Amino acid sequence: MERPLTRNIRPDEPPLALEAYRRVGGYEAVRKALAQSPEAITQAVKEAGLRGCGGAGFPTGVKWSAVPMGADAPHPKYLVVNADEMEPGSFKDRLLLEGDPHQMVEAVIVSGFAIQADHAYIFLRGEYTLARQRLGAAIREAYAAGLLGPGILGSGYGLELHVHSSAGRYMCGEASALLNALEGGRAIPRAKAVRTAVSGLWGKPTVVNNVETLCNVPHIVNNGAAWYKSLGLGDAVGTKIYGASGKVKRPGAWELPLGTTLRAIIEEHAGGMRDGVAFRACLPGGASTAFVGEAGLDVAMDWHGVQSVGSRLGTGTVIVLDDQTCPVGMLLSLQRFFAQESCGWCTPCWSGLHWVASLLHRFEAGQATEDDFDLLRTQADHLTKGYTFCGLAPGAMESLASGLDLFRDDFMRHVSLRRCPWRA
Amino acid sequence: MLSEEERRDIEREAPNYATRKALCIDALRIVQGHRGYVSDQALQEVADYLGLPLSHVEGVATFYNLIFRHPVGARVILVCDSVSCWIMGCERLLDRLRAHLETDVGGTSPDGRYTLLTAPCLGACDFAPVLMIGETLHRDVTAETLPDLLGKGG
Amino acid sequence: MATLYVDGQAFSVDPTQNLLHECLSLGLDLPYFCWHPALGSVGACRQCAVKLFRDEGDHQGVIVMACMTPADDGTRISLVDEQARDFRARVIEWMMAHHPHDCPVCDEGGECHLQDMTVMTGHVHRRYRFPKRTFDNQHLGPFVNHEMNRCIQCYRCVRFYNDYAGGTDFGVFGSRDHVYFGRAADGVLENEFSGNLVEVCPTGVFTDKTLKAHYTRKWDLQSAPSVCPHCGLGCHTTVAEHDGVLRRVQNRFSADINGYFLCDRGRYGYAFVNAPERLRRTSLRNAAGRLNLAPADALLQELCTRLGGNMPLIGIASPRASLEANFALRTLVKPENFFLGWSAVEDACARTMLAVARGIAPLASLAEVESSDAILVLGEDITQTAPRMALAARQAVRHAAFAKAKALGIPVWQDLAVRQAAAGLKSPLFIASVDATRLDDAATECWRGAPDDMARLGFAIGRRLSREEAGGETFPSAMEGFSQRVARALAGAARPLVVTGSSLGCPALLDAAAHLVGALRTLGLPAKLALGMPERNTMGLALMGGESLHTLEQATQKLPACALIVLENDLSRRIGEAAADRVFAQAGLTVLIDHKRHAGVERADYVLPAATFAEESGTTVNHEGRAQRFFQVFSPPDDIQASWRWLRDIGRGLGREPCDRWTALDDVLHTLEETLPVFHGLAQAAPEATYRRHGLKLARKPHRASGRTAVHAHLDIHEHQPPTDCDSPLTFSMEGHQGSPPGPAIPVFWAPGWNSVQALSHFQREVGGTLCGEGPGLLLIAPAQQVPEFFQEIPPAFVPRDDALYFVPAWHIFGSEEQSAGSPAVRERIPAPYVALRPEDAARAGLAAGDTAALEVGAVRLRLPWIAHPELPQGVGSLPVGLPAMPWLMLPAWGAVAKASR
Fold this sequence. Notes:
The structure holds 3 protein chains of 3 kinds. By secondary structure, chain A is of the alpha/beta class. Chain A is 41% helix and 12% strand. Chain A is built from 16 helices and 9 strands. In chain A, the strands form 2 sheets. Chain A has a 5-stranded mixed beta sheet with strand order 6-5-9-7-8, with helices on both faces. In chain A, strands 3-2-1-4 form a 4-stranded parallel beta sheet, with helices on both faces. In chain A, strand 7 (279-283) and strand 8 form a beta hairpin. Chain A is globular and about 75 Å long. Chain B is of the alpha+beta class. In chain B, strands 2-1-3-4 form a 4-stranded mixed beta sheet, covered by helices on one side. In chain B, helix 1 packs antiparallel against helix 2 and helix 2 (24-35) crosses helix 3 (40-50). The longest helix of chain B has 12 residues, at 24-35. By secondary structure, chain C is α/β, with parallel strands linked by helices. Chain C has 27 helices and 35 strands. In chain C, strands 14-13-24-23-22-15-16 form a 7-stranded mixed beta sheet. In chain C, helix 8 (296-307) crosses helix 24 (643-654), helix 10 runs parallel beside helix 18 and helix 10 (344-359) crosses helix 19.
């Protein structure tokens, strides 16, 4: 089984330095890309069927195609790597950034070339201090080797790469809010009146892609679209970094063919549930996805499969709820996060999420009534997509809405016992 | 006035951005790096140095989680309280820390060594529960290993 | 036009607009908060949700925000859709979750958009049972009260204050459900347009602090449409009174002039009307030289007896008095004895402005300033002298952004998207000024110079445009470079504009601006000129014509035999205290008609208390030559009456025709029209007193006005009959028509279900457009069709002197204008006296920081703290104009400066 993204990553070992990275074929994609036209790279990415791994799954090549190209295109153009991994339960980008920083740099160069970007930013989670050090070292090496800066490897293409360390806000993970943060402002999402590919950072063409998404690009350039497509299972293409956390035997992250089943991830790779606890449900793709119960475990973890059981692939990192953990408490933890991270721009989000978290707290405190359950349902129904300015609150409601269906009895036990059944 | 070192650090970032305004977040982090937190005075200095309205810089400073507008201890402890760490018992960990540091979340230990904060998911859910002390991430933290970590001072 | 289907009904709409804009224009009730007609859409509050259908067959539909959705042709929406209505009710519920429900003690109560929208959505039942978030409030200065707990986080305030008005001391702090709108710390809001927060805020976070001091609910206010008396722009206002006290001024929308916003001087300058020290009673000077109260009848009789049949009368008119008052004076004293009441310099400026407007340059309205795509401001510090024009110029620089947005397919109403795409892109705005100005941040480039050098700059630009040789003139290279850039920008614009004015007292600047506009028009460009004028009727007085006070000063020998009538004028502010004293001392007899106490009151033999703008109806002519009617708000107490009535009374006593026949304002207007053709049609500037709607006059008070029988109960158990108003079609009562009168006569904006200022949209043809039936005054000046030979005289370059500095006037929005300076709130904002010096010039005069400067300007000596203004040109200093705490200085003038001895 091929694992292109993680082939150089060894647990608890420092990442490959430039020379070692080059010895295993590193920066070959840069050489290959520079010998082609930018459009050819975009075409290859399009053909490969690469989709955004940050959670939304938008086809990457299509996004790039919207960037104005040619002599008349506005400059500077920008490529931004969204490395603001902050979705609770997601830890795949940290693995790639810390484990193989040169792969990230190479991905930026190749992708930047495809859209003819002049500047690239890696918008990095502020708390990712190790990743910052390692990326910094890799970028310095790349500059010294002529892989960054003007005239990369003697070509006519130049690119400046800079790591921006975020001051911390989940909202920055939203591409347009991220741009506002990079411009030195509050990370409020932007109206989608124009594509950022046309007018983004400082009004210039800008592409924002997730870490994992971009890391695929050098491999597609090296091995071709057909090869990339062959990596997935069934109709799915490529590999995906899946992860599992919660009370499983071996929590971790693994690069597997896209389309691996949820059951395989939890039972094979994570080793199943710890002794003494049983599987109850899981969030298949991070905190912004809906709960999937036992009945949905055999679904393929790809863009379509998870949707068939009412959830989403999201970030592909599974959060497992066991039978010894209070589902209401878990929802409270999730919703507190979203309420805290609401940027304060639109009414449903800033007010509604606070209300949701307050109601859940009341259940946990044993002070809730059945009416409060209905109120939660009302909130879940009205904080959905299209009602809010951006995807934060609708994402938050995925776990809540599905949780209200799945765990109604647990909620009612909190009401009847006047306390959390899982607390002494 | 910002110190020479602070100004040098800010200017090092300057070529990376199209505007002075874009330096705002980096400048706040740099000043915080030198002074521990961003005081009213420091905020004004950053605004003056970058030629930005104070209200803009304050708007940014109060928006982001990692800009501290109040004094903090010698080290800041960020305890992940997001879902995976919650499942794995971060609440017990927090209780231990509260008792050990004699302060609640948001406060500083009486000896001034630590400020205790919670943080959204630190992206190490496979090693939950986790926390950061200063710049260092500690994984699989248990009540037993905690005193050791604090003793070492991160 | 496009077709929009709303709940199955077809409407014709503007496809370049959004659905909310169009629904409101159609008169449909759709609640909203963050959207504002002048601020555009941002999609934050989510209140204006509607159901959008794909096509006729789609019955499912999706929820969209009306403000963020274009009104494309064929769009099908539903407002009454169950899901949309339900969601709109939830949005209000979310907002009200944290709102304190303190309406009974909130100044906004009864005219609150949040109240209206809450009622509109039908939200009546509270389900949120948790503590509400609370905030500390800030002290924001004398104008605006802050009560953050009421905030619903709609972001309108910060978008107006920062994005629209260019404010920098206000912001948004925090996040999630703890967003705070205010200053970084307590302190005075510095922006000159801060008072608009009161109207922009949809609830009671920002309220009028001056209203709070004498609070009255909207329904108890007696209101009338008015015209701001505090500068020459003539912004439209709604002025309100209760129980003899003027309570507040609000913006009154005008598509051509002030749009949705007023400056703080216009909003807060009103309280001089209530000032205890103002003139209220007729009085005359006794033999001992003391001014004593005297009953009006007796005083008039005595006065007329003294005047006899043949004592010549000399009248001194005033640019702050109405056309009617000035004309009444002119009629009474005869044109040959009618003096314009301003200095030689003011006169030269006014004549030049009028000549320019008549001969060369069409004058721009504020709306035209805003639509200009390249602007040169030549000399005038408009933020201080014509503040609302500065706000318009600040918007004008956005045309480049609009063009870029258009190219990207972003509708202009997508406010933040346009701003983000623009990334600071600006249309040309060049500012040439003596010193730094508060508009500089909006400019693309600034240039500093002495007034004459700025005039030379104007000529240099004009010469470039007309590709003429400068006739032996050479300009310094810095001026050449700048003039080249300005010339290129103006010549490349579709709607170029030159802004100047009279505030520097430099007619050459006006010549230069005229030259420049002439050159642009010769190129075939529709260039316009915008003029800053210091007083509300400067243009009206210029149109009336007459000699200046200078001529009178030359002929003082005839004064002892004459009676001097001074109309609403403090002569010391025109010709200096000494000269004013001489005029008073030499006149055989002096009559002063004014509402304001000033040095002239101490000199006059007869003092007649005049009505203020709120106590009379009348007409003024604004900076673009637009005659506008302002209406009396309330009936003044004591002896106060309109100046023209005092003059009429004197005329009656003397048996002078035709003024003895005047009984109502329209009589004066008709005589004026007949006598001076330039004012032809003036009476039609607004509905005349005979106007009736459905047979009724228009009510100044709303139906809900309470306690009419009780308001004077402590004085009289009988209900007073409301005063009658023969000057206007309005009544001092709730009796009368309450619907929608013609634009200039709308007393107050109020519509069923719309109690706040946002009711305005019910009175507009379309939202943001002209008022229904609006006759926005009458334009009196039409420029000549052909461009004549224009002004050519280039002044010599300014040469600094070793022994003196050239002091120019520095105008202040708060303090330099005479009437508003009498308002307590404005008084708090008046700067302390100072002299501004270039640091090098100060050093040459031996002044160190903290020293006091000793000045000698003309005959005036004074000691002032000096402040460093490094941008002043070499050899030029500046002194504030007209501050109450300073003697009047005749500026510009050369003066000496030295370090004051202790």
